[in-house]
Specification:
Blueprint lengths: L2 H14 L7 H12 L3 H5 L9 E7 L3 E3 L4 E9 L5 E2 L11 E7 L5 E3 L16 E2 L4 E8 L12 H10 L11 E9 L3 E2 L3 E6 L4 H12 L2 H8 L9 H15 L8 H14 L1
Parallel strand pairs: 2-11
Antiparallel strand pairs: 1-3, 3-8, 4-7, 5-6, 5-9, 9-10, 9-11
Length: about 270
């Protein structure tokens, strides 16, 4: 990696200076709320009330590099002979569709993407699914809304981190990961295995160093947005301008298409 690129990256890091303080209280309240959810909803054991519904989870490929967004596709299918009224909308943002991740042979822990389980769409008319019919949904796995300890004691904090991913990058190290999804607290997908490897290209290695040290770049790459309250409007503009400058030199690299799409989305929404 040329020094010019490294200098640009360092300049961006200096400009962002992300403190992640704005969402600290919000995250703490969210995780306290999660502690109050019955364990059966988090473990997602399938029962006889699924009404013939099944949930499938897939990804575009089985191997990704560190910091690469993982697109997930969910398929909800009615395998019964009757029309089924769903209990609610199928929505990661509303918390009816939940994703869990396990590293190697470790336990499954809940993943919370940007905006997940906070602001779902509501409806007064639950959707219906005809016999043999299916519904497709999609989401991305990358940046995690990690719990903030705050004033929690050791016992309660341990309980949270046993149930929930406690790193801001959902897949932070190389290895084998198992994914599963749970719908309406009772319909569980079969586990899906993916593999995460170290980046090999020089440019990818350097960008991963930046992402791992500044997870807000992962948030931006995934959503086209930044943590509220951490950057002034001018700093936000400077960051996006700097990103656009260096991605022009990395058009063939793994992360570049995602950053390019994120900057386009950010500018369109702002």
């Amino acid at each position: 990696m040329k020094n010019g690129f490294g200098n640009r990256i360092n300049g961006v890091i200096m400009k962002t200076n992300s403190l992640f303080s704005f969402l600290g209280l919000v995250c703490l309240l969210v995780w306290i709320f999660i502690l109050c959810i019955p364990l059966s909803l988090l473990t997602g054991a399938t029962d006889d009330k699924s009404g013939g519904l099944t949930l499938g989870l897939s990804t575009a490929k089985q191997a990704y590099i560190l910091g690469e967004p993982v697109p997930m596709a969910f398929t909800i299918r009615n395998n019964s002979d009757s029309r089924v009224e769903l209990p609610g909308l199928i929505d990661v943002y509303g918390g009816t569709l939940v994703v869990f991740v396990a590293f190697e042979d470790g336990p499954y822990r809940q993943y919370l993407g940007p905006g997940w389980a906070i602001s779902g769409t509501r409806t007064s008319k639950p959707p219906m699914l005809d016999p043999g019919g299916s519904i497709e949904r999609s989401a991305t796995l990358l940046h995690n809304r990690a719990p903030q300890r705050g004033d929690l004691n050791e016992q309660r904090w341990k309980l949270i981190t046993e149930r929930s991913i406690d790193s801001e990058i959902a897949l932070p190290k190389p290895g084998r990961y198992r994914l599963k999804a749970i719908l309406f607290g009772k319909i569980e997908s079969p586990p899906l295995e993916i593999h995460i490897t170290e980046p090999q290209r020089i440019d990818d290695i350097e960008i991963w160093k930046v992402i791992s040290n500044q997870p807000e770049y992962a948030l931006f790459m995934q959503s086209g947005d930044l943590l509220q309250g951490t950057l002034t409007d001018q700093r936000t503009k400077d960051m996006v301008d700097a990103l656009e400058t260096f991605i022009t030199f990395l058009s063939a690299r793994t992360y570049t298409p995602h950053f390019r799409a994120a900057t386009a989305k950010h500018r369109a929404e702002k």
